[in-house]
Amino acid sequence: MRQIKTSIGAFHALRSSAQNRLNCSAKMRHEAIPIGDARGGVGLTQGTVNTLCDVIFSSQTQLLDGNPVDGVEILHRGVFALPCAPGLVFKISNGSKLDLANHWNSAMRAAEILKEHKPDKFDLLVLPRITFYMLVSDHILNKQLYESLGARLKPALQQLVAFIHATGFCDVDFRHIPILDKELTPETTPKIGLVDVSRCGVVQGEAAQQTQQIYHEAFFGKGPTPRGLFRCIALEQFELLRAEVSKVSKPQITLDLAAYYEVWKDRCHDFEEAHRINNEHL
User: Fold this and answer.
1) This protein's superkingdom (predicted)?
2) Is 222 found in the same domain as 189?
């Protein structure tokens, strides 16, 4: 399965470090592949790579727009700092491959000019160390699998709905319900892993309103994260999932139709935007 990759620049910050509001943690497989560097480059710990992938995957739109993101210091549109990587600034872009290449070549040319001239000519100018990375994330691979497997996911989704109904599991996001791709072949039925089920609400015997709130979060999410199951699946799976939810009883799950159609519109926009960006990058 082809992995989707994100490009990001990391450079030493000529500024003070941020407060520690976001801890680095290793939950899933993430890689940062250096594409090029200037002035020695910048190395990233695995913890920083994991945090970058988590932040970019869950909040890419906010980062690009310069909007607030929990635990992240926004410096400008597409430019931010992480408390777990003091002294570093990160820059992301959703531009085409050609745009990214042009920006990188300009940075390399500036570094070469500074290096070629006499030390005293630019001795009052400081160019930070820079590395251009390609990030490869399990989050992004899982997103691609959920959106591409189509009807093959039906048995696993049916069981996931039953599990949510029985346990009140509501922290539903790609990182917590990965498709087990290492076991996946064209002939096998996909399996879904349960990575973190620490957020399960007691639904049997609970007050009806509280029970429905738990189910609402499980299926429609709560802000950018968790996404909720409907925000993880492809459009062709919506009616299948809705039908499965309607079958369960004791307690019955009442889907909020307004939320259902809002998520449907959001997912339509997601796929249209992804299609547009892929066409730009061809």
Assistant:
1) Eukaryota
2) yes
In this structure, the answer to whether residues 131 and 24 fall within a common structural domain is yes
Mark whether 215 and 249 lie in a shared domain: yes
Q: Which tokens hold the place of 282?
A: 């061809």
Same domain, 59 and 164: no
31 DSSP β-pair partners:
136
Reading the chain (282 residues) residue by residue, the pLDDT tens digits are: 333 334 455 555 443 332 333 333 334 567 778 888 888 888 888 888 888 888 887 788 889 889 999 899 999 999 999 999 988 999 987 766 677 778 888 888 888 888 888 778 888 888 888 888 877 666 667 788 888 888 889 999 999 999 999 999 998 988 788 888 777 788 889 999 888 787 787 776 555 778 888 999 999 998 777 889 999 998 989 999 999 999 988 888 889 999 999 999 988 887 777 666 555 544
Q: Which residues contact 161 (CB under 8 A, 6 or more apart)?
A: 229, 241, 244, 245, 248
Task: Please give the span between the terminal C-alpha atoms of the chain, in angstroms, as a whole number.
Answer: 19
Task: Decide if 1 contacts 142 (C-beta within 8 A).
Answer: no
Residues 167 and 275 in one domain: yes
d(CA 278, CA 280): 5
Q: Report the distance separating Cα 165 and Cα 251, nearest Å.
A: 8
Tell me the pTM.
Answer: 0.59
Co-location of 247 and 155 in the same domain: yes
Residues 134 and 160 grouped into a single domain: no
How many CB atoms are closer than 10 A to CB 177?
26
Dihedrals phi, psi of 213, to nearest 5 degrees: -65, -40
For residue 223 the two structure tokens come to 């802000």
